[in-house]
Amino acid sequence: LVLGFTSGLGLGYAQLSWISLGLVALWVGLTLRSRKAYVDAFRQALEWRELDPGEFTVSLAEAEALHNLISALDSSNERRVGYALEMLATVKARRLGPPVERLLGHPAAEVRLRALRVFHSQDYLPRGALEALLADQELQVRIEALWGLCLHEGKAERHRRLAAALDSPDPSLRSAALGCIAEYGSAAEKELVSPGLIEALM
Question: Which of 38, 96, 36 is nearest to 70 (CA)?
C-alpha cells in the first residue's frame, strides 16, 4: 500500500499518514463490532446449550465469556446452571470461587455435583463446605467431595485420608471412600480395600 500510494499516486508521507489513521479507525470499528457479535453468539449458545464442553476452552483474556458463564450460575433454571458449571470445569480462575461455592448448598444434587467438579481444577478450595458434603445424602456427591479434598493434598496425606475414611464408623463415609478409590484411586490406594470391608458395607 505504501509503495502504491507513494510511487503510483505520488502521495506524500503526510497524506499517507491520514490514510493510515483512516484504516486504523476502520479496523478498530470492525474489531468492536465483531467482538459484540461474538459475545452475543456465545450468550445465545449458552442459552440454547449448543456449546460442547469437551471442546471448550476459555482464556482469561476472554473476560466477557467468563462473565456470561458466571452470570448463568444465578439462573433459576437448574439445567442452565448445571450446563454453565460443566463449562466452567474447564476454566481455572480465582474469581470462580465465591459464585461456585454458593452452589455447593444447592437443593439439586446434580448442581452440587457439578459445582464440586469445578473445584477439581482450582487453586481455591472451600474445605469446610467440602467436609460438610461428606455427609450428603447422594453417594456421588460424597465421592466427589472426598476426591476434591484428596486432590489438594499430597500423596501420603491423601492415602491417610482415604484409609481413615474406610475405617470410619459412619457407613456413608466408608461407602464414599470406597467409591472414590474405585473411581479415582491409584493401585496402592486400591489395596486398602479388603473383601471384609466390602462385605461389611453390604
Answer: 96
Q: Which residue has the cell 453390604?
A: 202
In sign, the C-alpha dihedral spanning 174, 176, 177, 181 is positive
- pLDDT tens digits, residue range 17-68? 888 889 999 999 888 877 777 666 666 665 665 555 555 555 534 667 777 7
> pTM for the whole thing?
0.66
Name which of 80, 132, 78, 67 is nearest 101 in CA terms.
132
Q: Rounded distance, CA 32 to CA 181, Å? A: 50
How far apart are the two ends of the chain, measured CA to CA in Å? 79
Q: Say if residues 107 and 74 touch (Cβ distance below 8 Å).
A: no
DSSP type of residue 123: S
| 103-108 long-range Cβ contacts below 8 angstroms, 24+ apart | 103/73, 104/129, 104/130, 104/133, 105/129, 106/81, 108/78, 108/82
